[in-house]
Design brief:
heterodimer; A: mainly alpha; 2 helices; 11% strand; B: alpha+beta; Creatine Amidinohydrolase, Chain A, domain 1; Creatine Amidinohydrolase; three-stranded mixed beta sheet; three-stranded antiparallel beta sheet; 7 helices; globular; aminopeptidase activity (chain B); Creatin/AminoP/Spt16_N (chain B); metal-binding (chain B); metalloexopeptidase activity (chain B)
Chain lengths: 37, 305
């Protein structure tokens, strides 16, 4: 199964990005399992 | 905030969360910062070998963007719905949590039905519903909508001190939350005997809902599902009585990608969980809405739970 991080990594490659900033707690939770801000 | 690179994943957070995340940060480097998180993130980004860094343009205020940009040397590239589109396709674990949240929601509706009595207020009924959900789930997905009589015409009405009378409609829109995952279901009930007009309208909404769900499959446009509903309502002369979109994705947020409406560019894909919620509303008289969560599978739409 493709991990959530691998899905994002694929998107970043498509957009020619080296990194990505997450600014919402709900999205941080999705990738990390941590509820923080 | 978090910064993800192919090499490493960082979380930049305040001391408030330090204890909470202790022991859970195996894969993540956690940077606890007492001052501005944006400045810290800017400094961090500048210290790494990064050229182009995406950010959630639709979820970052201009003020916060400016603060990050002051210290952040790599190019900041605005991205829209990048994460939301990934999140819109659910894995098995997520589907199971949404199913569980849906099961509790339907149980709460049954509990509410037994607690109802003529004279109960919308607010009291809401408290009954919420008390059940809080016993069985982690929380509610949103403030429930519990409306009686003519107030059922308000798609997003707030419960009031309005008392339930004999022979009128009840509309309940609610959802439980399990491990962060939401449910969103609406039912319209009759309290006593209601005029034939409402039975006819309820049956119409129910049948339109069923028909729309039959069309759900991977690769169909979200706008096509919306069109199917609007065309059937138009045939009955009620196209102007449908006051909102056909539905939306459900997951960690109660309203998330994909959105099903006439302007949507979304294409349904296997693993998405969406609501289908036709409604027919008559201002000052009442309304009917039927809403289910539907899993998109390669065999078609499957109602959850």
């Amino acid at each position: 199964m493709v991990s959530r991080w691998e899905k994002l990594e694929k998107k970043l490659k498509e957009k020619n990005l080296d990194a990505f900033i997450l600014t919402r707690s709900v999205d941080i939770f999705y990738f990390s399992g941590l509820w923080i801000e | 905030m978090a910064l993800l690179t192919s090499e490493k994943k960082f979380i930049v957070t305040s001391p408030m969360y330090e204890e909470q995340i202790k022991g859970e940060e195996d894969e993540w480097e956690v940077i606890v910062c007492e001052d501005s998180l944006e400045e810290k993130l800017g400094e961090l980004g500048s210290s790494l070998d990064i050229r182009r860094c995406g950010f959630q343009a639709n979820h970052l205020s201009f003020a916060r963007y400016k603060k990050i940009k002051e210290k952040f040397k790599p190019q900041l590239i605005p991205c829209n719905a990048t994460v939301e589109k990934i999140r819109s396709i659910k894995d098995e674990e997520e589907i199971n949590l949404i199913r569980k949240a849906g099961e509790i929601t339907l149980q709460a509706f049954e509990y509410l039905k037994k607690a109802l009595h003529t004279g109960i207020t919308e607010k009291e009924a809401t408290r009954e519903l919420v008390s059940y959900i809080l016993k069985e789930a982690d929380g509610v997905s949103f403030d429930p909508i519990v409306l009686f009589g003519e107030r059922t015409s308000l798609p997003h009405g707030h419960p009031t001190e309005r008392k339930l009378k004999e022979n009128e409609l009840i509309l309940v829109d609610a959802g439980a939350k399990v491990k962060g995952y939401c449910a969103d279901i609406t039912r319209t009930f009759a309290w006593g005997k209601i005029p034939k007009k409402w039975k006819k309208i309820y049956n119409l909404a129910y049948n339109i809902e069923k028909r729309a769900i039959k069309h759900i499959k991977p690769k169909i446009k979200a706008s096509t599902i919306d069109k199917i509903i609007r065309e059937k309502l138009a045939e009955a002369g009620y196209e102007k009585k449908f006051l909102h979109g056909t539905g939306h994705g459900v997951g960690l947020e109660v309203h998330e990608e994909p959105f099903l409406n006439r302007n949507s560019n979304a294409i349904l894909e296997e693993g998405m969980v969406v609501t289908i919620e036709p409604g027919i509303y008559f201002a000052g008289e009442g309304g009917v809405r039927v809403e289910n969560m539907v899993l998109v599978t390669n065999k078609g739409g499957k109602i959850l739970p």
